[in-house]
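Run folding on both entries below.
>entry_1
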Amino acid sequence: MLRQPISVLVVIYNQNKQFLILQRKDDPDFWQSVTGGVDRGEQPLTTAYRELKEETGIDAHTLGLNIKSHDVINHYEIRPQWRYRYESNALINCEHVFSVCVPNDIQVTLCDEEHTDYVWLDQQQAADKVWSASNQKEILAI
């Protein structure tokens, strides 16, 4: 099923203000926070909780962690090599921004279908390492 051009960005940081970023399997130079498409009929906040668990193994509901909405929607051009995943003629994606603060000792279990590695970095290092400008902007906004 083709995706609608609506997604979430979930910036994850810990109590020491270190940020978790993930390396994409399909592009090893592409590091990012958790992202994911909003399914039809799904609210972006629900997507944020689902994607956080799917991509990192962090179950915010079970752990009592609140994912915070930033009430921001970024608009950006969908990378040409990823357009095949979207409804026809979709060129611009609408990205709803969220964040979550996790315990310093949180266990991370990557979804190996999507990511090959992860790293915790301080704020500026994380902002410098992520690929997208919107991800960088949102890390620095925390």
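>entry_2
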Amino acid sequence: MSTNPQKLIIAKDIPIMLFAGEFQGTLLQGVAAAVLLMPNGRRYTVSQLVSVNHKDEAEYTALIIGLKKANQLRLKTLAIKGDSDRVFNQVNGLTPVTEERLKKLYRVAIKSIRTFEKISLEWISPEQNRPALSAVKRCMKDALGREKKASSLSSQSPLRYPAMLSLIEKGEQATEEDYGKLTEEEDEWTHKSLSELRTLIPLEIRDLIALQWQG
């Protein structure tokens, strides 16, 4: 186990995955995040809100979404690093998984790990895990911001916009003509920038896009 808080995590030869999870009682949910550091200098971050009641569940979820992203990137070799004692002890087979709430997450994590040709797991200090912990904080801040924004926009219901309501109802059956009707009238979103519009997209949708994004 590495305990040097000054060590800088840099992917020199093989991709590195950092992961972290947190449970936020005020939101009654958790946050999971993973950061993939590539040898060519690229960085991929995935994060999402998760319905959990304990920090270790969020940490397991962070490991899982990070592994999914690594699979999406078609990685065969991966060095996994994080500061969760429980996750590393259980995944490395040092301690048994006795909690029912963790057994399913554990099985999913192990199944994902076995899809790689070569993989390593290393415990690191929270200081070394700053990229993943920062991603958790950003996700949490974003969620709180969306909660406030949703409250302020509660009076701006889609019911005010027939074209939008029709699009929601039709779902995958919507046609190009249905989408075209959204541009016929201006609304409060018409003049927003792309960055402003991005904050209105649910985190889970953004993460689905991130998992499919190839950089």
